[in-house]
Amino acid sequence: MRGFRAKDADRDRFVELIEAAYVDGQLNSADRELRVGRALSAETLDELETLTRDLQQPPGAVVRPTVDVPSPAPSFATTVLPRIAGSFVVLGIVAVALVIGAVVVTMFASMGGQSSDSGFGTDGVFESELADPEIMFEDPPAPSFEMTAPQVRAFLRAYEKQFGTLEVYEAGFYPERVGVQVPVRGSRPRMERWSWTGEWRQDTEASAVTGPGEVIDLGKVDVRRMFANIDTARATLDVERGRLTHVLVNSWIGDVPSVNIYIGNKFNEGGYLKTRLSGDVIRAYPYEP
Asked: What is the pLDDT of residues 265-281, one digit of tens each?
């Protein structure tokens, strides 16, 4: 694999292998942070192999990526001939359609003197369809959000487009929505609460700032590292059958801006992992009975 360029999918697979080795006890936290950082910036598959060559693959770990083998060049028989045959088929269909169209026009011309009791309007559309346009058109699907890396990135683009900034007092990422405290410009600290579910909804008017009092820049959140840390939190916080409940991005007065990943289960047991915006782990708070 020497010399082959690494893709984002390759980097993600090797990051997962490093995280699995960390959970398996093969790496300490400092070594894990170093290797993950180098894996995310690796340019070739050879660099990725070097980072993980000394690691044992824990049960369920991702296997080494393979290099795609180019497909043989298409032949005349598999490309040109089908196109020629397809052209004749299309011409035949067009000819048949023209004949049918001519017959239909002739029939409507002969019915021109009949009354409109047949159910057709003046433009040939059923009157029932004119009275009920829902028969002809369906509502478009409602916008939606789910907690995935591509949709978090889409939310960040939508936030900057809506508010002209990426600054917030707090952002809460939930499985099916995002809630944000949006700063309001003025002489005193004010905020509005908004929700994103694929479209924007304003939840409150401007009010005094409550909770975290420091403005943070969502543009500094490393989304890739955040989702890698979600996997780490599930595996290390000792929450039985734990699932992601939410992620809070905020900064309390006197504290560093942080990404707080909360894991819980149906027994109301939970823990959370606190990291910097860059993804570096600050501290883990596992479940304690």
From this structure: 999 999 999 999 999 99
